């Protein structure tokens, strides 16, 4: 499984709390090596299921942790390094400075907004660019997936990526996430990807099963 660098610059995850849940509590002690989550990847344009993706924690430190993303047959997959707010610091060969903005402030709740400006670089092929992420948490919702029923916080992040040296936006991603504190991740996440203003992909990840050590 390969991680496209432009997609890496667009994609996003964060642990958030619903009303009554304390997102401000320290997440890192809860993240353990071996924790894993399996999602069903669905093409929302065609309405057809694609592969199942498993995300497994391979390292956990004081302020960041690493997740391996692999397909149905295991494989080598690719790695994502998250900070304690679940912003990505690295995804595959792509590095973000300071981070990709896909996370959210610790005190996020329904109505919270944030903005992150970042740069990204392909450490293998070279090149990179600039990105901006604008997020908002919209509402508390209960969601049922094959993994169970969860209290969630629904949030939306719009990401725009520009080429090296600036210039007009070349890629956009609209990401809606139903964060489920019980799972330390999300119950569902949907993506709408755009190139030069036109929709190129629309797909979603729904939690099928998970295990916390």
Could you please describe the fold and organization of this structure?
Helix content is 3%, strand content 59%. By secondary structure, it is mainly β. It has one domain: YmcC-like fold. It has a twelve-stranded antiparallel barrel with strand order 1-2-3-4-5-6-7-8-9-10-11-12. The protein is globular and about 45 Å long. The two termini are 26 Å apart. Mean pLDDT is 82; it is low at 1-26.
Which value, in Å, is the CA radius of gyration?
16 Å
Q: What is the count of distinct domains?
A: 1
From the spread of the alpha carbons, the general shape counts as globular
Question: Would you list the SSEs in sequence order as H and E?
Answer: HEEEEEEEEEEEE
Q: Could you name the key traits of this structure?
A:
213 residues; mainly beta; YmcC-like fold; 12-stranded antiparallel β-barrel; globular
Write the layout of secondary structure elements.
Layout: H1 5-10, E1 36-43, E2 48-60, E3 64-71, E4 74-83, E5 88-91, E6 94-97, E7 113-122, E8 128-145, E9 148-162, E10 171-180, E11 185-195, E12 198-211
Antiparallel strand pairs: 1-2, 1-12, 2-3, 3-4, 4-5, 5-6, 6-7, 7-8, 8-9, 9-10, 10-11, 11-12
Can you describe this structure in just a few lines?
The protein is mainly beta.
